[in-house]
Amino acid sequence: MTSAVITADGLRKSYGRHDAVRGIDLEVRAGEIFAFLGPNGAGKTTTVEILEGYRDPTAGKVEVLGADPARADREWRSRIGVMLQSWQVEPALTVRESLEQFAGYYPRPLPVEEVVQLVGLEEQGRTRAGRLSGGQQRRLDLGIALIGDPELLFLDEPTTGFDPAARRGAWQIIASLREAGKTVLLTTHYLDEAQALADRVAILVDGRIRTEGPPDSLVAGHATRITFTLPHGVELPALPEPAEVSAGRVELRSDEPVPLVHALTAWAVQNELDLTDFEVRRPSLEDVYLELTTGAAQP
Ligand code: ATP
Fold it and tell me: 4-216 domain in CATH 2.60.40.3080?
């Protein structure tokens, strides 16, 4: 049994009369990537900042790396790396200077040059942080979280503002952290990011965890969708299987898509119909997420 790095028991946080976190139980194990998903204002950052020791809970018990984050010491802090949502660097310092400054807080930091390369800021090494583009600033923030070579990383929306190539680069970095045995708690609004990276996800809605588990297990039980445009001159009842029309396209759903695909394609060949935009789509984490958070997606 792998040991828990983070546990939360009945965690609550109220801001005045507003209950932002309403009883969260959580366990993140050593070496896993755990992702918090949820709409704006669901309580993700509040929870993460309590786990980082930056906010006090209103109620409940929290333990991170064997200590209460609210009372943790410098040694504890040197074992974690944090990427906050908001800007945390002196704008007048260059990229290298910023990383050097943060490296000084850790007993065994990575070489600054290695981190500059890792986050793809080689060309901006001498640029003042205040002059970086939004995405470059976020890369520097990621570098700051990595510089201490910590065993636990909190990454709050780590790839927001990244261009597509930089996002893929960041995914590689985060996946390599797991290979190095680190534990990562991240929040993200990108469901493909969670699906690609996370061993387990928790979907937060209104300060509560609505569902939790490995992305594939959350998706299991949701039907595969088959869609195509109804060929000219064909009526819906003529199809070999019951179907409905959604957004101008025929849609069929099934837990066992293979026989359905077989029936449809055989029917199309027999009737010499060209289903040019025929598509089979596995359910995704996004379908599950939308269903839980808006009720808009299909079961
Ligand atoms: P996002 O996806 O937008 O980052 P989130 O899930 O991280 O959202 P939180 O930032 O944790 O959400 O906010 C949860 C709720 O608590 C929101 O309603 C927010 O307005 C409120 N809140 C957060 N910080 C404070 C604060 N310092 N004072 C008062 N209310 C706050």
Answer: no
